[in-house]
Specification:
8-stranded mixed β-sheet; 18 helices
């Protein structure tokens, strides 16, 4: 059985073939990779745009191709022949790609042909081409290449029955029928610039989803339906948590008063988890001279993602900071530490700014102003394991509070061995850093996997992956081991021998970014927050105006107890007031009328559990104080 990734990639070819059959042969193809649970293909439809309604037609045509059980057959051409073929087929985007490949030294281009039952006039005559330099069949996941050359006229390699030809080198299924029926679906359309550059033509991107079988697809579809109900974009607007303004700028969110309450509660909780671990709070400015980032190496690896600022008076060039670590290096450097002082632990929840690509941005979960609960630890190599263990303990405590700890795993993110030039530092330094993190992961019993190519350019990472209430996976906390920045900034402390020693820097963030974490939490809790996070914890509703004095007293006592409470004395009728409180997801709805006044108590409705009770006010206050302080869900 072929891998799921192989099937997804094969489906992108089948989708492109089906799209051409529905929309016509003039559709131009760009790229069609598989990514995570889905695949996509970028296409140019010219003057006949593809409507969303046509996706069902394309899906049906894909089923017919799969039932026909078309064969995927690989062949390779010289660069010149590949250009001739693609020119004949009018594939201008593919031509641009192979010319780039030629400049990089590629001499042979791989293609896949889908072989069907019926001749395709478009592929009738390839006599203008030389013989293919290599020809291949796929057997399972293996590509088998005959030693001898084959001719186009040989029946085994007669491409007159090719229903579709595409330039590609990835593995594909051998036969389309290997893909289980209804294990996939076309998801949506989106716009995408060719090669991600707004100066290039805008293409249409068709997204598709594929899973092991029809049941897995159905489960995912149900999860996505549930996700729509929890969408933080809708709930954020409905509950007045945050605002996006075109005048302020795209994906620079503004927190409403209610949203700021949630953020401050998370931030204060994070500090409470750190302050008894000997962390020291620091503050750094929002911009710095370019020299800082030249020294750190970010100017050479990160410049296109940074915002630049010119001083109106000074005429100096500054960058708005994309991360806090270079600033923290300067704080450490301005001190004279000895080995007795180590480790030094800095904590700063600070906003950084990154010029993320528009297509990657998404409300709170991917923004341009990112508030990191950032921390940097300066320690000795012998202290790495202990310090990482302390951070792991903080991470576990934090995510246990949010009911996210079950089923998490950790990506041990290391260098891409095939692109070592992307990373700062020597092999020796990287081996020490990578092995140190792995040893810490093992010592803490983490469920970790080695993931190549996901390291930061300055060091390896432990990236923590958590699942929310409906099973979606998010990368949140991170621990990064860095031997490079201390070298670049020439940081030092005095060791036992009164010799200068270089510290190691551990970068860590627990929530990742507060904006992203808030977006995830809004959806995780579907807008009904635990009491300690809730912007409005209780609302007092008098049954009528004559009970307003008693309602005022209840309201005042709750305020005195530091409970976030609202008093609804509007002219709306009682049922509408209760519905308004439920619409706002207020945790406790307190109704007071004649019975409550006479008996000196309150009627309590729990919005989350729908339970109702009658309680003395002081008992209620004591109960929700306990619920809040224990951070109960």
């Amino acid at each position: 059985m072929s891998s799921l990734s192989t099937r997804r990639h094969s489906l992108s070819h089948i989708m492109a073939q089906a799209t051409r059959m529905i929309m016509g042969a003039d559709v131009k193809l760009a790229i069609g990779p598989d990514v995570d649970t889905w695949w996509y293909y970028d296409m140019d439809f010219g003057d006949t745009p593809l409507e969303e309604a046509r996706l069902k037609d394309i899906e049906k045509k894909m089923q017919s191709i799969i039932r026909e059980n078309q064969e995927f057959r690989q062949f390779s051409l010289s660069l010149a022949d590949a250009e001739t073929l693609l020119s004949a087929l009018g594939e201008k985007y593919k031509l641009e790609m192979i010319r780039d490949l030629g400049e990089k030294g590629e001499t042979t281009i791989s293609f896949f042909a889908n072989i069907g039952k019926y001749e395709n006039p478009a592929y009738k005559d390839f006599s203008f081409l030389e013989n293919p330099k290599t020809c291949a069949r796929i057997e399972g996941e293996e590509v088998v290449v005959p030693v001898e050359e084959k001719k186009w006229s040989d029946s085994e390699y007669d491409f007159r029955k090719a229903t579709f030809i595409d330039m590609c080198q990835w593995p594909h299924v051998q036969y389309a029928g290997e893909i289980p029926e209804w294990s996939y679906t076309l998801d949506k359309l989106a716009g995408a610039y060719w090669r991600g550059d707004a100066k290039n033509p805008q293409l249409t991107r068709i997204y598709g989803l594929a899973f092991e079988d029809a049941k897995a697809l159905a489960d995912y579809t149900n999860m996505m339906e549930e996700a729509k109900k929890r969408d933080h974009r809708i709930l954020g607007k409905k509950l007045k948590l945050f605002t996006l303004s075109d005048l302020v700028g795209s994906w620079l969110p503004l927190l409403q008063p209610k949203g700021m309450i949630i953020r401050k509660e998370i931030e204060e909780y994070l500090w409470n988890l750190h302050k008894d671990k000997w962390y020291l709070r620091v503050w750094t400015p929002h911009l710095a001279k370019e020299d800082l980032y030249i020294t750190s190496g970010h100017a050479g690896h990160y410049l296109e993602d940074m915002f630049s600022v010119w001083g109106g008076t000074s005429k100096e060039k500054f960058h708005v900071k994309p991360m806090n670590c270079p600033h923290h290096m300067q704080i450490f450097a301005d001190n004279q530490f000895s080995y007795r002082d180590m480790p030094i632990r800095y904590f700063e929840p600070a906003t950084v700014y990154r010029d993320e690509k528009t297509g990657q941005l998404s409300w709170l979960t991917r923004v341009r102003s990112i508030t990191q609960d950032d921390g940097h630890l300066f320690c000795r190599v012998s202290q790495i394991k202990e310090e990482v263990s302390t951070i792991v303990g903080i991470i576990k405590e934090f995510y246990k509070t949010f009911w996210l700890l079950e089923g998490y795993w950790v990506s041990w993110s290391v260098r891409d061995p095939n692109n070592l030039e992307k990373y700062l530092g020597s092999d020796e330094v990287w081996k020490i850093a990578e092995s140190s993190l792995e040893e810490a992961a093992q010592a803490n019993g983490l469920n970790y996997r080695r993931i190549e190519g996901e390291a930061a350019f300055y060091g390896p990472k432990l990236d923590f992956m958590f699942k929310d209430a409906i099973g979606r996976e998010w990368q949140l906390a991170t621990i990064q081991c860095d031997f490079n920045l201390p070298n670049r900034f020439e940081l030092k402390f005095m060791n036992e021998k009164w010799e200068e020693e270089r510290p190691v820097v551990i970068h860590r963030a627990i929530s990742g970014s507060l904006e992203r974490f808030m977006g995830i939490m809004i959806e995780h809790f579907a807008g009904t927050f635990p009491l300690w996070l809730a912007p409005v914890q209780a609302v007092v509703i008098p049954v009528g105006e004559k009970f307003s004095t008693y309602a005022d007293m209840v309201f005042a006592e709750l305020k005195k107890a530091d409970i976030r409470v609202k008093l609804d004395i509007s002219s709306e009728w009682l049922g509408k007031k209760i519905r308004n409180a439920e619409t706002d997801h207020v945790n406790y709805i307190l109704v007071v009328g004649e019975k409550e006044v006479n008996e000196g108590n309150i009627s309590v409705r729990n919005y989350k559990t729908k339970e109702q009770s009658t309680e003395l006010l002081e008992d209620f206050i004591e109960r929700i104080r306990e619920e809040r302080e224990e951070k109960k869900l």
